[in-house]
Amino acid sequence: MANVDAQSPKQHSNVGTLVIGGGLAGAQCVHALREGGYAKTITIVGDENEIPYERPPLSKQFLQGSQTVEEFQPFQATWYSSAQVEMRLGTTASSIDVVARRVFCSDDTSIGYETLVLATGSRSRMGGRGSNIEGWDLPGVYTLRSLEDSRRLKGAFATGKRLVIIGAGWIGMEVAASARAAGMEITVLTPDQLPLAVPMGVEFGSHVARLQMDHGVHFIFGTAAEKIVNDPTEGLAVMTPTGLVAADSVLLAIGAVPNTELALEAGLQMGHGIIVDTHLRTSDPHILAIGDIAEAFNTALGRALRVEHWDNAMRQGKLAASTILGREETYDWLPYFFTDQFDLGMEYVGDRQDDDDVVVRGEMSSGEFMIFWLRSGVISAAMNVNIWDVNDLLRGVIGKEIPVERLVDVSVKLADL
Ligand SMILES: Cc1cc2nc3c(=O)[nH]c(=O)nc-3n(C[C@H](O)[C@H](O)[C@H](O)COP(=O)(O)OP(=O)(O)OC[C@H]3O[C@@H](n4cnc5c(N)ncnc54)[C@H](O)[C@@H]3O)c2cc1C
Asked: Fewer Cβ atoms within 10 Å of its own Cβ: the N or the C terminal residue of the chain?
């Protein structure tokens, strides 16, 4: 058991529920706790200096200048004080003593807990195979995870027009759209042959490629970035096997890595994330994990999964609160997410696999269509593109066996499928 006096922390305190990570999942958890009548003390330790905010606008509305941060904070600063949630912002949790039930922080303080909720989210991936891509730390190279990152990236739009984006995933494509709107010249480097085909398949990937190219985004497919250099003649540039691609700024958008080190060092059971049960409890009965870091057992799908999306963070925050409040709710909803790029708005629900059959309803060339994925004739996932207020209906058809002729027949109402 740790001797807190031996470590001379400046301050010891004890709380009912301690949340590490002031992101969306953590904020939803403490809000749902208070809404549910939780009367014990609550503290959030968050390493950012901001009260919790949602990240989707960082690559979209905030980057485009059409939303202010106050518009995407799930709860205003006054709510935390009125709900007596102590906010320890700008503070990093450095280690957990699971025996003493105490968390040690970067400011030499320590906090004892009855229940600990890990909600540490993800950070930007900086390279492959465990090492950062060479040149990641050069001036003019950006990543996008935090509000501060988004502000810096936006500032870069004023310093030169050529933005090279490494990676053609969600963040790369959303930033490409926002940066084009700001008049930037975009080159996207990707080892793949299409954007987003890995998570979403070639049909949607081809649609996004066309959309982006129609808006002037230039792709270099099948080409990996080898390193980022400050070339004496070219200036900032990305080195590829076929030559240098010159840039005024470079965005590294090659995915995210879950912040699971605290849990690993504390000896919690780990898989592709922190393993939690269907109530979001880790292998330690006093510790829960939620959001991007949690590999949770989903009762609707009958398997464990880790999901890096907004809806998951929101719902798991609430579910963790209900577990702490002693309710028996479970992780039983289908994964959902959305994207916005140029004039495309998309929502997806379900659990597609690469070898599922694909059925398109409507004309993709019209820009308004749906995609259904089927596994052995059963709908596994569905997507609506530029057709609104239908996602709940799509959620309702997942798991059903519906003849393909009816799925593609736009004269059959979705509600009648
Ligand atoms: C630019 C961007 C755009 C996105 N767009 C979409 C979208 O369009 N649709 C969608 O579905 N999803 C989107 N997402 C994903 C979604 O935002 C995340 O899945 C969600 O934020 C996860 O919430 P979280 O609370 O688990 O983690 P986070 O939001 O990452 O919050 C975790 C917090 O914990 C802090 N922290 C980490 N370690 C410590 C520590 N040791 N001590 C203290 N604090 C710590 C972190 O700094 C952070 O503040 C986007 C993400 C980004 C970055």
From this structure: N
Pair 190, 226 in one domain? yes
Q: Is the pTM of this model over 0.90?
A: yes
Out of 231, 255, 279, pick the residue that ends a domain.
255
Whole-number Å distance, alpha carbon 407 to ligand 1 midpoint, is 36
Q: Which amino acid belongs to residue 35?
A: E
User: 246 is in which domain, residue-wise?
Assistant: 141-255
Q: Going by CA atoms, what residue is nearest to atom 4 of ligand 1?
A: 56
127 pLDDT tier (thresholds 50, 70, 90)? confident
- For ligand 1, residues with CB inside 6 Å are 20-26, 45-48, 55-56, 58-59, 92-93, 119-122, 144-145, 171, 259, 262, 291-292, 308-311, 313, 337-339
